[in-house]
Amino acid sequence: MGCRRTAFLSHFAGDPRGVVTFDVILDANIIVSAQLVQHPLAPSFRLFEASLGRALRNHISEALREEYLDVLLRPAIMRRHGLSPAEVRELVDLVRHFSLEVAPPQAVAVAPDARDQHLWDMLAAYPHLKLVTGDPPLVASGDFPGRILSPRDFVDRFLATE
Question: 0.85 exceeded by the pTM?
Fold first, then answer.
């Protein structure tokens, strides 16, 4: 049997000196990728850590929280991240604790994929939010110009180190 990963992060409280600088929506693929790579230079991991350290304020809806759980609990994903179902629930609770939960109304704008409509609803209802996603069709959609970014683009533009 392979070695078991440690749950979440080596630390997760973040730098108490940090301030919220960006309001974002971290798509489920960001949270999942962060758990799979757990490398401090990986864009998804940097975004995940920043959302726990208050440099980013993640916004979630009930649908997005459920998507986090659903994807992290898929058997193939669970084999890769090595977390138990209880640890996955604890992780999602942690993300929820550091996020602002919102309940957007249904938007007129239609998402490129019906399964992502909850993200479009959030973007339409809250014009200050940026969606960070690794889903190429969402990034390439042309909807919400300048507000849908890949993890690499967001990190390079807004979380670049000196």
Answer: yes
